[in-house]
Input
Amino acid sequence: MDVLLATVIFIISYVFIMTEKYNRAVIAMSGGILLLISGIYSLHDMFQTYIDWNTIALLFSMMVLISITERTGLFSFMAIRFAQKVRGSPVPLLIGVGMLTAFGSALLDNVTTVLIFVPIILKITKELQLPSFPYLLMIIFSSNIGGTATLIGDPPNIMIGQAVDHLTFLSFVNHLAPVAGIIFVAMVFMLYMLFRKSLNTGKANVRKLLELDASEYLVKSPMLYQSITVLSMTLLGFLLHSFLHINLTIVAISGAVLLLLLTEKELETEQIFKQVEWVTLFFFIGLFALVGGLREVGIIDELARLIVLFTDGDFSKTALLILWVSGLFSGVVDNIPFVAAMIPVIQEFETYGLVYLDPIWWSLALGACLGGNATLVGASANIVVAGLAEGEGEKISFIRFMLYGIPFVIFSLVISTVYILVRYLIPYMSGGV
Output
C-alpha cells in the first residue's frame, strides 16, 4: 500500500509541475506534506535523511555571493565585454557561452557555473534584443555535459569518486572527457541548426552595443574589490577542495558570510536575502522530499536490483543497461538518490565474478550526468537556470524544454553507448582487457 501511495503522490505532483498551472515549489512541497500525512516517512526522516541540506546551503550561499557581486556591475561589465569580443554576432555568442559554461562546469560544479553565467547572458540577450531561450538551453546542456567530464563537475561523479578509491580526478578526465567533448560538439551543431533562423539582431543593436563603455557599468567602490576577491577565493576553494579536504558547501558558506560581513556598511543584509531565489530553494526541498518517498518504500533500490536480475550478471549487458536506465531515470528524478542506490549494488557485482568494474562505473556516471538534460527537474543546474530566468521575466516552459531535452538525451546516450562499446566492451570481450 505504501509503495502505491508514494508512487501516486509522486506522479500526481510531477504532472502538476509539468502543467505549470501552480507554483512548482508549492506543488513539490505539497507532495512532501502528503507523504508525511500518509505516514510514508516521519518528519525526522524527511529532514535528516532525504532533504540534502548540503545542496540547499551551497545554492543559498552562491545566490548570496552572486547577488552582492551583481550590485557592483561586474556581470554587466563582463556581459558587454564578452558580447563586444564577438562583435555582437548571435551565433558566435551562442557557441562562446556554451564553451565557457562547459569549461566552467568541468572545473567547478555546474550549479555554481550557471549561477555566474545566466545573469550575464540574460543581460546580453536583452541588450541585443535576442531570444533568451536558445542561450539558456545552451547553458543547461553545456553545464551538464561539462560536469560529466571531471570528478568535481557533477555530484554523481563526486559520489562515485568517493566510493572507488582508484578513480582519481585524472581517471575521470581520461575516460569521460573525450566522450563529453564529442557530445558537446554535436550539441552545439544541433542547437545551431534548430535556432539559426531566430538568432538575428539588428545592426542598430550591434552598433549600440559596440559603442558602449563597459567600464561605466562598474560601481567602483570597496564593495567591487571585496566581491571580486571573495568570489575568486570561493571559486579557487572549489577547485582545490579535494586537495584541501574541505567540503564544497563549507567553502561556499564561508565565502557568503565573509562577503556579507565585508559589505555590511554598504548593503543591508535583509536586502540581499530578499534577492535570493527562494522559490528555487523550496522547490529543491520539495523535490528531495518527493524522491525521498520513492526511496523510503524501496522503489529506487528495487530498480537497482532488477538491473542485476535482468542482466544475470553479464558484464556487457550490465554496463549498457546501467547507462540507459540511469540516463532515462535521471531525467525524471534527481540523479543523486539513484546513484546512491546503485553504488553498493555495483560494488556487489564482484560477488558475481566481475572484477573489471570500471566500464560499469563510467556507464553510471555518463547516464546519471547526461540524463539530467531531459527535463527541468533532471539536474540541479536546470532548476537553478529556470529560477534565475523566471526572476528576470524569461520563464522556461517545462514542456518546451522537455521537447528539446528528451531527444537530446537519447542522442547523447546513443553516442555514449558507441563509446562504451568501442573503448571498453569490445576489447574486453575480445580478451584485450
